[in-house]
Amino acid sequence: MRAWVVSMPGPIATGPLRLIERPVPEPGPGELLIRVLLCGVCRTDLHLSEGDLPPKAPDVTPGHEVVGEVVAAGPGVVRFAAGDRVGAAWLAGTDGRCRYCREGLENLCPNSIYTGWDIQGGYAEYLVASDSYVYELPKGFSDAELAPLLCAGIIGYRALLRAELPAGGRLGIWGFGGSAHLVSQIAMAQGAAVHVFTRDEKARELALGLGAASAQDSFDPTPEPLDSAILFAPVGTLVPPALAALDRGGTLAVAGIYLSDIPELNYQKHLFQERTLRSVTSNTRGDGEEFLRLAERLHLRVTVHPYPFDRAEQALADLAADRFTGAAVITM
Ligand SMILES: [Zn+2]
Ligand SMILES: [Zn+2]
After folding, report:
1. 170: which of 22, 51, 117, 235 is 20 to 30 A away, CA to CA?
2. How far is the CA of 75 from the centre of ligand 1 (A)?
3. Does pTM surpass 0.90?
4. Which of 119, 153, 120 shows the shortest CA–CA distance to 135?
5. What whole-number distance in Å separates Cα of residue 146 and Cα of residue 94?
6. In the beta sheet, which residues pair with residue 308?
C-alpha cells in the first residue's frame, strides 16, 4: 500500500514527508484493519512534520482524522466488524489502569498512545486501530465532512468544556480554523455570543457567516469583556491579550498541543480578579462520543477543502500559510 511518512522533520517548504510503499498491516488482538476513505489534515500533523513535536517512531505516517471501512478484525474484537464504517481519531490507546484512567481522565494517562504519532496514521491506504478506541460515525454528513469532526471537532469540544463557558455567556476565540469553526457553532447553539480574533480575513468572513457576534484582527481589543476564551492559534504572544480580554472570574483555555513561548505576564493586567489560564490535553473517549452526538443533533456546518492523496504535503503547506478556511481533507 502507499503511505506518507515523516522522514526528515523540518519546515514544510523543505519537503519533510515522503511517499513510500509498505505492506498492508495485520490487525492484532482487539484491533481492526481499516481501509482509509479519507483523512483530515490537522495542525498537529504540521507540528509533527516540522519537528515542533518530536516523532515517536521512525517513518511515522501522520493523520488522525480517519474515515474508513473495516475490512478485517483481529481476535477479541467486539464492537465492530468487516463492512462497518468507523472513525479513527487521535487517542489510540491508554493503559486503563493508572490513577488518571481510573478517575475518568484517560486523556492524562502517561501511557497513552496517539494515532499518527506513536502508531501509523491515516495518510495511507490502510491502518490498524483499536476496536475500543474508534468511533461510530454520526449521520447526516458526507465522508469529507466527517473527517474534521474527529479531531478538530473533538479536541475543540474539550477546549470548550475546559473554557467553562456559562450558558448564554460571552466567548472569545483566537484563531479560526478547523476546530474553531465547529466549536463556535456549538457555543452559539447554547446561546453564547462568540467573538472571533484572527489575522485571516477569509476566516473572519466565515465566522460572521456562521453567526459570530463580531470578528476582528488577532490583537484588536474585544468588543465586550469575555466570560471564556479559547486560544486555537499556536501563538504564545496571544495569551496576554486573551487574558486581558477576560472579565472577572473568566477562563482562558489553550487548545493546542504546541504553543510558542508565552511572553511575561503582568499579574494585575492578566491574572488578578480570579482569571484562570489552563491547557487542554487530548480528550477522553467520553468527550468524543458526546461531541459526535452533538454534531449530529445540531447539524454542524463543516467547511472542507479536499486534496487528492498525492498532494498531502501541499495540504500541510497550505495550512501553514492560511491558504484555506475550515479544514483540509485528503481523499483516497
Ligand atoms: Zn492510564
Ligand atoms: Zn488533531
Report:
1. 235
2. 23
3. yes
4. 153
5. 24
6. 331
Strand partners, 17: 6
Residue 223 backbone dihedrals phi, psi, to 5 degrees = -65, -25
The chain-wide mean pLDDT, for the chain, equals 96
Going by C-alpha positions, the residue among 218, 224, 215 that lies closest to residue 196 is: 215
242 close to 172: Cβ distance less than 8 angstroms? yes
User: What spacing in Å lies between the alpha carbon of 42 and ligand 2's midpoint?
Assistant: 5
d(CA 183, CA 181): 6
In this structure, what C-alpha cell is assigned to residue 49? 512534520
Could you give phi then psi for residue 48, rounded to 5 degrees?
Answer: -70, -45
Centre of ligand 1 from the C-alpha of residue 108, in Å: 7
Q: What is the DSSP letter of 110?
A: T
Sign of CA pseudo-dihedral 289, 293, 296, 301: negative
- Res. 312: pLDDT tops 90: yes
The CA 64 to ligand 2 mean position distance, Å, reads 6
- Label residues 215-243 b or e (16+ Cβ within 10 Å = b): bbebeeebeeebbbbbbbbbbeebbbbbb
Instruction: For residue 93, report the distance from its CA to the centre of ligand 1, in Å.
Output: 9
Ligand 2 centre to CA of 327 (Å) is 11
Rounded to the nearest angstrom, the distance between the alpha carbon of 55 and the centre of ligand 2 is 15
DSSP state of 77: -
Taking the C-alpha atoms of residue 282 and residue 256, their distance in angstroms, rounded to an integer, is 9
Position 123 confidence tier, pLDDT thresholds 50, 70, 90: very high
Give the count of beta carbons closer than 10 Å to the beta carbon of residue 280: 22
Average of per-residue pLDDT across 106-124: 97
- Mark out the alpha helices in the chain (DSSP H runs): 43-50, 99-102, 143-148, 154-162, 178-189, 201-210, 239-244, 285-298, 312-320
Burial of 212: CB neighbours in 10 Å, binned 0-12, 13-18, 19+: buried
Q: Chain-centre distance of CA 113, in angstroms?
A: 16
Ligand 2 centroid to residue 224 C-alpha, Å: 31
Residue 184 pLDDT > 90, yes or no? yes
How far, in Å, from the CA of 99 to the mean position of ligand 1? 7
